[in-house]
From TrEMBL, chains A, B:
Lineage summary: Eukaryota, Fungi, Dikarya, Ascomycota, Pezizomycotina
Catalytic activities: tRNA(Asp) + L-aspartate + ATP = L-aspartyl-tRNA(Asp) + AMP + diphosphate
Organism: Clonostachys byssicola
Residue ranges, annotated region (Disordered): 1-60, 202-223
EC number(s) given by UniProt: 6.1.1.12
Predominant subcellular localization, coarse grouping: cytoplasm
Protein name (database record): Probable aspartate--tRNA ligase, cytoplasmic
């Protein structure tokens, strides 16, 4: 799926889309101009309803109306007068006397509003309604239905049950009979991306800047006839991107992942800490690290909180977790990569075996995945309505799948595609192998979540603890007490037991060809020599990936609040 | 206080301290050597108790002993056999037959252990104890009391009530009768900083590297005769720094601040979001911003999440908060400054007035300050035992102090020190003025927490909304709907209403001499033009400062997990 998106639509489709987009824009512009003329023609001074509508930052409402959020409206409000602040999402004119609007708030709560003129007749013939009835003029109806979509407005209205349920709105059994309406913040007549376009699946994830001759936004037509926008257009219209219910739902799911991670660990006596972003050495390999000038020295942006989690253990914190940004200076322009993402990390003392760490990590991930299904059912449904996906298969309790790396490679050789007949037990897996294995495991064990344990030392960093039993695989390569976790065949977590003995650590550092006296490494090693450090292990979860792969999104960029890629730093 | 610390002790005192430190180190070294000799002289093979002690990564214990954490030990364990993993903090030999140890775990939980030889007689005369009694030799007693302090050990023991309470330990009504003891991770014989030194107040906060002739650690003698260490020594011995109960307590308090911040806001429907650290423009002024090479362009580290919080509001998120790192490339080597710190930020839609924002921020800060007193009473006590402070005075509910900036300046002129007789209502305050005002407010209103509102526009950034009433102060300077919050006379929060109208915003950007088409500013302004953005406001709290000033710590560096200063990036 992601390959299709990365490649994008054909040139012909793009040309057609461009032409269509231009036409749409022109049409919208003209409509806006017409409306502007109409509105300016209304002489508000003459209007008996003039105090009941307009554009203001400080509307006054009657004291007896309750301010209420859309999401809180329920049948108990039937017949009550309320004040609602919301986005005007749509409007239409039924007649000169009557108009409809659709209001949206709280991400995804929508309701229908209607406005009906109470002043009968026109011009000199017009008659005010009876005392106590709201004064609503035809001009007021015109004003309200001419408000630019996505403007932020405040209305006073009476809540009533509609004659029949309003299917197009989430709140379908109530509607608002508008008596006052004020624009608090007007959207422009033409939006850079409409709500309809923003609510379509993103058409193209390439973050290449469009070439000069392609400057008109690429918005290939989606199936329903509404043009879909590229990721570039989405990010260039960041507010509209975020207002779409699908992005609201993804953001809510992302927050819930963090909340579930935190609550599970806090219940198990993990304590939060904050690792630094600015560090003094490219400790975990210098290749993909951002460097910056720092008061005459050089500083680096942390690629992971690894060393700092271990310092916390050395410092007697027992069980720690952190949630924060990590950075990779990798020039990879794919829907799988970002230069800044959020790590959910933990580290803990080990009592008897590193499998205690696997159990906590498996526990927290299952808590997250099960928790999302329970708490975010609505949000998942919204995401699926835009990005369809198969149900995420979770293992039954007690039937969690943990495979050793060598077992997994064997499975891939025997049951995977032809091209993986010769994968080795002593070499790391490629992304393609991982995905193929995901399919094999799903078919065999009926789960999209599993653990690969005992990675060969060739595939792990110097701090990974080698298996005590001295097990070897392939060409006499020792295995480690280190593991990866997968969602839908894609890695979301790396972890393992760390070496806590300074002699063993120095030996492994040298064996990996790293200078134990190099900056950063020296200070790391020193900490283990300075004090006794208990046996420990941990893991790091990529938050963006958990969200993206759980929802089977076509790009991890959709899961981020502000995706950072080699070509994208704004907004 | 901080000036004293920044200046540090006199040269003479330092020389004396150096000599003392050298002497102490030598003494410790010799003691360690003696112990090492003793231990190696023990021929373990001969010892009938040899399976009950030693150095191992994988001790085996009897199956009937329960593994328990020190903090969970209560009277219900009296008489039970338990396994405890902990730091050996201290030991002493009572006789050849008997020794005492002090174990520490969970930051600050300590208990006394004793080990008593059950094998009677010596050499050929020795007799094993009766069947069922633990086999403990004199060699085992010697081994245990010779373990280097701060080693991580596991013991099997019977929990018993001591003859009289052990005053030196937090768990004073229970003690451990040790039957097995294994060193899991040995500390070296000489620690770079002892626990006693680490538990003293930091002697010197300067982060200058010591000059060549001063290379011996500066550890001026504290009152109790235990040498205090400089911040340099603390950070160079990061694990020992963290193990001290005072730092454990500060870390626990810091975590609680975040938890209280989050829970208060989540209950009020604020949603978390994650602003980026990497940004494409030095949007809020280029002076104190870190720059880095970014795939052929330049990237910057965010100085605040300001613009991104506003994008969330534009994107329909209503009420948001974030907790994360922010960066200042300020070459300030003071106990008040760091280059990386944690911001607690929020932003919210405004319905009627920006005072709604003040109320939420005042609410969350009071919730934090009151919450700390309730939930962290023990931790606060521990911190005060090292860094004494006056009670933090909180206003009674309903008597919160909000002063306008001009009122505060008047107060300072009239009731403050002589030097501030001429402070102006249209110029920002200095740190010295703030502190002086803190004293005046404390004396007058009996509170260490208060709000200054309506700052003059000269003192605020371009996005600050000017007061609607057109109020001016001093030399015809308009005031803004912007405010600061103070703890003990030191600023911990800046906030206010933001301009949400793009025309007004552009005007203010120009008035502040900023180019509205410069990178970052252009994209910021564009967002307001692209869509209607509701009235909104918010604020940013400095987490490190809240912790430091609430506890009246001599330096904000003590509140951070890994303080980053112009001269300190490691560990």
């Amino acid at each position: 799926m992601e390959e299709d998106n990365a490649a994008g639509p054909s040139k012909k489709a793009l040309k057609k889309a461009e032409a269509k987009a231009k036409k749409e824009a022109l049409k919208a512009q003209r409509a806006a101009e017409r409306v502007a003329t109409q509105v300016s023609n209304i002489e508000l001074e003459d209007d008996p309803a003039k105090d009941n509508y307009g554009t203001t930052t400080n509307p006054t409402f009657s004291a007896d109306a309750e301010e209420v959020e859309l999401r809180d409206l329920d049948d108990s409000y039937d017949g009550k007068k309320v004040v609602i602040r919301a986005w005007l999402q749509n409007s239409r004119t039924q007649s000169a006397k009557m108009g409809f609007v659709e209001l949206r708030k709280g991400g995804n709560w929508t309701i229908q509003g209607l406005v009906l003129a109470t002043i009968t007749g026109t011009g000199a013939e017009s008659q005010l309604p009876a005392e106590g009835t709201p004064v609503i003029s035809r001009r007021m109806v015109k004003f309200i239905t001419a408000i630019n979509p996505e403007s932020f407005i405040a209305v006073e209205a009476q809540v009533k049950r509609p004659l029949e349920p309003v299917k197009s709105c989430r709140i379908s059994t109530l509607e608002l009979h508008i008596t006052k309406a004020f624009v608090l913040a007007a959207a422009p007549p033409v939006l850079g991306m409409t709500m309809a376009a923003s609510s379509q699946p993103v058409a193209n994830f390439s973050d290449e800047e469009p070439k000069a001759e392609e400057e008109v936004k690429k918005e290939p037509e989606a199936e329903g006839g509404i043009p879909a926008a590229s990721m570039l257009t989405h990010l260039d219209n960041i507010a509209m991107h975020k207002r779409a219910p699908v992005q609201q739902a993804i953001a809510d799911i992302r927050i819930e992942v963090k909340r579930l991670f935190r609550s599970y660990l806090e219940e198990r006596r993990f304590k939060e800490f904050e690792p630094p972003c600015l560090i003094g050495a490219a400790s975990e390999g210098g290749a993909n690290v951002f460097r910056l000038a720092y008061f005459g020295q050089e500083a680096f942006l942390a690629q992971s909180p690894q060393f700092y989690k271990q310092f916390e253990i050395a410092g007697g914190r027992e069980r720690v977790f952190s949630i924060g940004p990590v950075f990779r200076a990798e020039n990879s322009n794919t829907p799988r990569h970002m230069t800044e993402f959020t790590g959910l990390d933990l580290e803990m003392e080990i009592k008897h075996s590193y499998t205690e760490v696997i159990s906590v990590l498996e526990g927290v991930l299952l808590h997250i995945l099960r928790g999302l299904r329970e708490r975010c059912a609505d949000e998942i449904q919204i995401v699926r309505s835009v990005y369809p996906s198969e149900d995420f298969l979770l293992p039954e309790p007690g039937k969690e799948v943990r495979l050793n790396f060598a077992e997994a490679q064997k499975l891939l050789r025997e049951e995977g595609p032809e091209e993986f007949r010769n994968v080795r037990d002593d070499e790391d897996m490629s992304t393609a192998q991982e995905k193929a294995l995901g399919a094999v495991v799903r078919a065999k064990y009926n789960t999209d979540f599993y653990v690969l344990d005992k990675f060969p030392e060739t595939a792990r960093p110097f701090y990974a603890k080698v298996d005590d039993a001295g097990t070897t695989v392939g060409d006499n390569v020792r295995v480690t007490n280190a593991f990866d976790f997968f969602l839908r065949g894609q890695e979301v977590l790396s972890g393992g037991q760390r070496i806590n003995d300074p002699k063993e650590l120095e030996e492994r550092i040298r064996a990996k060809g790293v200078d134990p006296n190099s900056e950063g490494i020296k200070e790391y090693l020193t900490t283990f020599r300075q004090v006794g450090v208990p046996p420990h292990g941990g893991g790091g979860i990529g938050l963006d990936r958990v969200v993206a792969w759980f929802l089977a999104l076509p790009s991890v960029h959709l899961a981020a609040f502000y995706p950072r890629t080699p070509k994208r730093l704004l907004p």
